[in-house]
Structures are given as C-alpha cells and as structure tokens.
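Question thread 4412

I'm putting together a teaching handout and wanted feedback from people who do this every day. The idea is simple: show students a protein as raw sequence, then show them the structure tokens that encode its fold, then repeat with a second protein so they can compare. Below is the first pair exactly as I plan to print it.
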Amino acid sequence: MKYVIILGDGMADYPIDEIDGKTPLEAACTPNMDQMAAEGTLGLIDTIPHGLQPGSDVANLSVLGYDPLETYTGRGPLEAASLGLELESGDVAFRCNLVTLGPIENPMMEDFTSGHISSGEAQEIINDLNKEMGSDTYRFYPGVGYRHLMVWRRGQEALETTPPHDITGRSVYHYLPRGEGADQVIRLMKRSQKILKDHPVNRNRISAGLKPANSIWLWGQGKAPKIVRLTDRYSIRGGMISAVDLLNGIGKYAGLEKIHVEGVTGYTDTNYAGKAEQALAALKDMDFVFIHVEAPDEMGHEGSLAGKIRSIEDLDKKVVGTVLEGIKNFNDYRVLVLSDHPTPIILRTHSGEPSPFAVLSSEKHENMASGWSFCESSAKKSGLFISPGHHLMDLFLKGWRSFIEEKHS
C-alpha cells in the first residue's frame, strides 16, 4: 500500500461576504479535491487540542498521529531539528523572525516577513547578527526566507511570547516577551535593531523600494521533545516534502526523510508540480510521502482573498491533480488531502476550528462515495468527525477499511 498526504496549510476559512458568503475553498475551482470528496470519504478533523494555541506546529503534530498534549514543547525545537541542530538538555530554541517594524517611537509590526525577504539576503543578515551578538550563550542560525532560529544555551523556556503574524498592524509594546528571562530576550531584539538599521542588505532593499528587515522577533521557544518515530511505529519508510523548517523538523522527528525539490519557496511562487512529481518518484522506493504546501496560509496572513483562492487552485491542479493521475501506477494506495487549521482572511491569523479532510482509496469498499464537494460546509454535513485529530493517522495507515465498513453498516 502506498500512502500520500497532501496538506494545504491554512486552507480552511470562514464565509466571506465579498464572495457571496462562500469560503475560499467553496469559491475556488478544485475539481481534483472535489473528486476525492465525492468518490472517497469526506469529514472534519480537529487538530487543535483544548488549551493549545492554533498553529501549524500543533496541527501538523496531530496530522502525523502525535497527541500535542503529550509531545508539543514549542515551535523552536521542531525547526532546530530541520537545521540539524542537536539540542542539549538545557537548550531552549526560539523561532527568530526577521520582521519590519514601523516608526521607532511607537514601533508596530508592519510586516512579519520583512517583505518576504529572500533566503540569500536573510542568511547574510543572520550570519552578521551571530558575529555581533552570538556567544557561548546565544547562537543564531539561518533558515529559509524570513524564518530563522536562535538557541539559548541553558536558557529559560517559561516565557510568554507572541507569534509576530498575530499582531500585524499593532504596537509591539503590548506583545513583548514576559516572564523569567524576558529581559534577556528583549535585550537581544533591541540590540538587533541597532545592528540592522544601517545593514547593507537593508540599504539595498530600501533603495529598491522593498521593506527592510530591521529587527528580529523571538518566539515559539521550547526544549527538545520526546517523540517516537512514525516510521518505527508503522514499520514504513517515508518522506517529507516542504519548503519550511517547521514541517521538515517535525518530519525528522517522525523518521521521515527530507525530499529535496528545486524551486520550493514556502510562498505562492513555489514549485507546486515539482512537489507532486518528486512525491510520485519517491513512492517507487518509499511507502509514505507527506506533501506540505504553505501558500494558502501565507495568503491568509496577508488577508489576500484573491491570492488564497489562486493558491488553492494551484494546489488542486498542480499537486492534487498530478498525484491522482500518477498514483494510478501503483496498485494499492490511499491519498489524504486536508487543511491543518483555518487561517481566516478576516482574522489574518490561525484559528482552532476543525478543518475538512478527504481520503480516496484504491479499495472501492473503503470509500463512502457521498458525492460531496471538498469544503468546510460539506465536511460538516458529512457527519464524520475525527476528534482528537491525532487518531486520523492510525486510521489512515492501518484501520481505514474497518472504520469505513463500520460507518457503512
């Protein structure tokens, strides 16, 4: 049996007046996901346990079959794994965004991506920050785009920090770190602003009419989690395809091999088709491939309705469509498509409501074939609700047949 998961990050949403009360999923042209919902099995998955903040870290742990209440320690250590960093017992890893803050007299979170700064520009900045601010206590590591990492040796983790994408357009004073160790973290953030004010990369970006990366923002801290490898639990070999360190880090903890795809960016210009083609190629040797597409989430954070619809349509045509056509070359398969969490346009950040999923199996009797389309309202009407969400992986990999037969009975 071959298994493929296609995850559109933040794809789910709320009804929007501008498009006659439809969600972006309902407004988008998605014949391939609709086929999966109509011919396969459609339902809702609850990926965010009560008491945890909605986000791709918690949600994707759930999708991969881990109970976040038992395994989640923070976003930072998951991204550290992707960078190949071995955290010692006292190390605390922080996500380190390069951000654009507004006027210094009352700084606002103008852009949590620094205008989607390129990885090359960002690497130069992070390396220079590490030269100026790095020490035996603090180390900075470059990642992808605006997403980077800081490790605090023997640091404090019991801090209250805020994701920068939650406070776009707001004064940052109300969202600075709080708790034991907050003074040190704030000091690093303020020192970075002095270093970055006249950094050559920023001078060039300003000259080109682009937003400068004029500060770091530290958040998502935690120590290394204890996670049993997914590949060991199910005796399978699998791979992860993603442009972002978070998913690649989760994949590494799960025992999934990172599958390289040229041209992946974590944005709307990513190589959608390349992800699907590489996944199909990997399945010749692997049992399981997870394809992650970040673009719908980025469009939700930007509040771009047109961009979100376009990214969903690109995912459907270039990823889902390519996979559905190519997977026919394998005799036995299951394909799962889903959103990990909503990133509503109106909120411009994550929310914790359940999201739609659809599974299409080569075994016809495993499909409920309800005729529904792939969207939030149809998934709710289906009556199939997986909660807590981490149970879906076990059903998908080994128990789908009996589960569907029970639903049919």
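The second pair follows. I'd like the answer to focus on this one:
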Amino acid sequence: MKFINWLTFPIKYSFSKLKRKFGKLDLVRMEVLLAFGNEHEIFIKGRLVEAYKQSNPSPKKSALQNFIATLRRYAGNSVSDVQVKLQFQDAEKLLVSNEEGLFEVKLPLNVTENKSVECAQLTLIEDEGIVAEIKTVRFIISRYSTNTPLGIISDIDDTIIISHATSLGKKLWLSISKNAYTRRPFPGVSTFYNYLSNDGQNPVFYVSSSDWNLFHLIQDFLEYRRIPKGPLLLKDPHVTLRNIWKSGGGSHEHKLEKISQLMTLFPKTKFILIGDSGQHDPELYTRIIETFPNQVKAVYIRRIKKVDKEREDRLNSYNHTIPIAWVKNSEEALTHAKSFL
C-alpha cells in the first residue's frame, strides 16, 4: 500500500490544491496521531486530511468491504499549508501542516509537575477554502516520568501482528482483505505484553515502518486484542520525486532515530526491545545497545524464518550482560521474562 500511496501522492496533492483554490475542498478533518512526553517536554503530532467516510471494523466484514475501506483510508487527500493552534497549560503554539498534511511540535514545559494524564486542544484556523469538520479537538497527553524504571519498545509487523512482511503478495492480501478485528495477532501476545507492562504500569511504545494511514487500524487492533496501548511512532511518507518510485518498506533508519529519541527522553529507564527476525530489527537493536548499553534490559527477537546462526551469534556476542532471547512464540518469551523480571 505504500507504493500506491507514493504513486498517487502528486495527483492527490495537486488535486487538493486546485479544489481549495476554487472553493471545492471538502471539510477538513484534524487527526491527533501522537501526544506524549515527560515532566519537561511533550511531543504532539497530527495531520489534516479531507474528511472521508470510514466504516467501523467488524469480524463480519467481507474481504470486499475491507478492500473498499482500505481504498478510502489511502484515498484521503492531505491538506497542506493550513495553520493549527495548539493550547496546553499556559502555552500556545501555531503549527502549519506540511505537504503531507502532517504537523508536529516539541514543546518545552515551564511547569515540571508530572500528571500522568493531561488534556490539550488543537484548533484549526479556518481560511479561504478551509472549513473544519470539527474546529476544535480536545485530546489526552500521556506523560511518563523520567524516573520510570522499566519501559517496552516494540515493533508491530510480524512481532505482534501476523503480517508476512517478507512476502509482498501475502502482505498485500492481508492489508486489503482484513480489518483491525480480523487481522490475527501471534498467540499469547496479549498475555506476554500485559505481563511486561505490569498491567499498564510500565509504558509501551510501538515503533514501526507502517505509515500514518494505518494509525487507526493499529489502535483498534491493540484495543480489540487487549494488547497494552501506547504511543505509536510510525513512519512519515517523506514523499519526493526522488523516492516516489520506490516500493517496499524502504529504509528503517527512522526506527533507529525514534528509539534513540525515546532513550534520550527517558534516560533513567531500562527498556525491553521486542522485534522479529524478518527484516532489520536484530541489527537495529545491536546499534541501540552500542549507543545506549546501560538502558537496554533485554531483547526479544521472534524467529519468523529459518535460523541464521551467524546473524544470531553476532547479536548474542555483542553484549554478554544483556539477556537476548530468540524465541519461537510468545509462551517461550513469557517463560524467559519470568526468569529475570
């Protein structure tokens, strides 16, 4: 679906500009994608798109109904160059959506009192050709203490949700024929993650190469499968004429960048890293261990392909003080976790 998104982006972007110029732009929807921080700063990310009708997921939906829902999810035009006002505590900040409709801000806080849950609001600044579906959106910011002892950083595809990321045909079929309620998790994932998070006491951050169009699907999936919810750090399209013809997942360097940001944001937290052997998680986590050796408590890699002994030995030998478990299933991972947590 990324290829389709990249391929159609220039058309959708130009069409949106023309519709706005002639006053034919649909109502603009404001979506909050990310809202979390610590005692000292918060991160807000959202996007503006033309309002589109999206059906609710259901176990009874057919493959055709899910395919239509997928088309709607990717067909929405981003709305660029529009101002949004953020209000949080006593602070106000004007943000502007980029060519992909995305806006984001890192906001330092003057008040260091840490409440675990706080409210903020975004107001869309209506202009010529811009009419909000809902002008002001209020939302929750999750703030975690820098003294949080344990946190979890997890991949999504082929780590918690069966995606067949290494098989383009199977991955595409799952993407277009299933919804949040019919996509399957790996057995035992809910039990394993709830144990690690201590039923929500330890924060869970999900870092994935999925794009923001899948935000609501992933959120609904986590809730439906009773897997601990947490901030989703997904991949920006960064669409340019140079990369528009690329297919597949592209570079996963953004995952390294986002995990590094989490380590820096919570310097006293020990993190458990969870991924799979299908793509680059073992190599990415090796680089994280190299940079933040005192902040990695353990690493879990789900084996989804045949054993690559050389690859496993490389990660295993990198730091003998950090438990590294290559597991076949969640039950095996849970047994290992109970032995040292």
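Top answer:
Good format. For the second protein you could add a caption like this: The longest strand covers residues 28-37. Residues 2-21 form the longest helix (20 residues).
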